[in-house]
């Protein structure tokens, strides 16, 4: 049983009726609903004490999902430090959509994580460019999303360890939409789809990717990581 | 002065009037014309003795460009062996378009190098996804080709060391169009654009990429590669 | 239940009393013995018809282990083709020690796979350089082998996708001893230890690595790999 | 003419007679002396205003070398921000020895950059594991340093884009001693050798590596990096 914590900024949904109409219980609940009976799922949000990410919660989390957008700066540095440390220890991390600009993700990548975007509601196709990857299990050749915000290259991240998805956008752009990284013992997956006003996380194929990514990002035992003076 | 050999199958141009109309002197001459005064350029073609790739020619070649399509099987294994060895020794190799199925490229990659395609004359945009790469020097954000054959993912090659271009196609596909590899001491660049019935190699941006790729693929000195029994 | 086939050249053991003393039932049986009750294990050897690697055997194999040394050239090209195809389809492959020069491994790598060596019976330490990797599960910081043949750099293989072990040798050399690759859908692990006159495959930590590597290399479902003309 | 800035903490040399005996003018001057007439070399040190790394200095620097050890925390965050931005824009960065724990390097890597060490004055051999890399130009198979501080694995950094050197230590350890990365447009090389009490930077082979690394890390033009809203 993989222990999953779904973190959401949870502001748009309380501030904006259009967003509330799409995600009445918050984006975190939609994501939590995508994880099936094989997961032990909790949620945490920005306005909880310590953003809901106490030491205890992190200690008992195998994989953390992260959705944020308008309030990246409101995340306390001390909490970012703590989550960062846990990722290096081995906790999996799945960063979604506008989370590319989260303090946590920028710190793990070491780059600006900038990109181009256009909120035009055009069609997106996420092509599987690595059909042998476990995150692609059970998918078709591509996932089609009829209405999305466009994200375009260049995407200022380190070259991914493996690239699983590349998006095609109706308006003429491409984007590396599914990027795998390891930092310390932690597995990190950046997954582009998701927006507060399109019901992306209700799409069955996207939900399948979330489950696959959680499985992929779950910690393994590994061997000791001892640092410092050696005799 | 970089010594470049442009190799071309040179059959379509002699067999098909439509191709001859686009490339009257052969694709090799169009490519050779793209390389400026800084290169010492030769050409070689399939129907020459030893396909024009004698030991002497290879010994004195810094970078080899390769275009083939309908006659991959007519390339003698002994010549493939010889070129393969030279790449491992350090000769640069630029494989163009349908050269993805060349014996030489498949041998260097170790995979099937299969892909999807559609000859529909649609528009292609080659997005630079690695703007810091020297092969992108002097380019805009993307290169647009008004009429091309589509190549689509999945592309069965090893994960590139660096991915420089990703193509967007009007018909809805994407493709990793500029892939960098090293094998032994040799630098290898696979570059998708090019077709016998579209004048791709007359495009100024494409010609710039060819020059950049030759510079990137040129051998460096390195250190000794000695193998076998050590005392 | 992972279906494993252990392939061994099985010539040294029948030709040389010193080898027979170390591996009386053949190296393949020692390796098979390292795989525990969670595996469905078969063995196959060079001198069986089709080297024991019929279409049926390969179809029903999840992970193939390969040990060869003096008779690489005796492996039929048609069998190499068949195994190569199965790896690209997704069968895992673990190449051991002198298998670096197997036709199959050279074909998958696209390089010479040459290295340096010295048969001096010195001590080797395999350091885990990627402690978060599942192939390192349950190991200490390093595995020490009191008597081994030395393999030294340079090792002419493509840069590994991930490097799990680096060996230190008493005589002054280093070697990338645990190299992960993907080719097509297949996962490939090259693991250096092993020799016909040292009882390497009786070492408990080495046996643990073999089990870990089999688990890591097992196929996942992935998504369709369809190639060719697209409508 | 490549514009190089050599940055040094420059405290050990002023506080400790043993260090001053090895590097009487400071480590920065020894490094600067290794860069030949093809470079336009400046130095900068911690105790200068803005640590000598003003906007003007960084703007006109192609490649920055960094040596620090006991005073990493004394480097102002604002200067780290500025240097970080310049690296992403394309300035090359060469991080030396104990600089692995510099704020700047940890920020670029996104990991702890921890390692093991032992100050025992034992012998180190830096093996070239990538003999085709330009940083290895003109070297022998390995560089031997008779007396060094040991650094051992695990080294908590992201998997390098390319690994050029692996060190062997007399005491039984190994280390990935020459690691290449790209972050944004900037090329980064971590190079292990160097210590305040051993005259490492007087070694001719080490000096050759420094020159090679400066050439490798020099910026190229690339193509535009434009981010934000697209029309």
From TrEMBL, chains A, B, C, D:
Database matches in InterPro entries: Class_I_gatase-like (IPR029062), ThuA-like (IPR029010), Trehalose_catabolism_ThuA_prok (IPR009381)
- The residue ranges crossing the membrane are none
- ThuA-like domain sequence ranges: 4-217
Q: Pfam families from the xrefs?
A: ThuA
Which SUPFAM superfamilies does the protein's record reference? Class I glutamine amidotransferase-like
Q: What is this protein called?
A: Trehalose utilization protein
What is the taxonomic lineage of the source species?
Answer: Archaea, Methanobacteriati, Methanobacteriota, Stenosarchaea group, Halobacteria
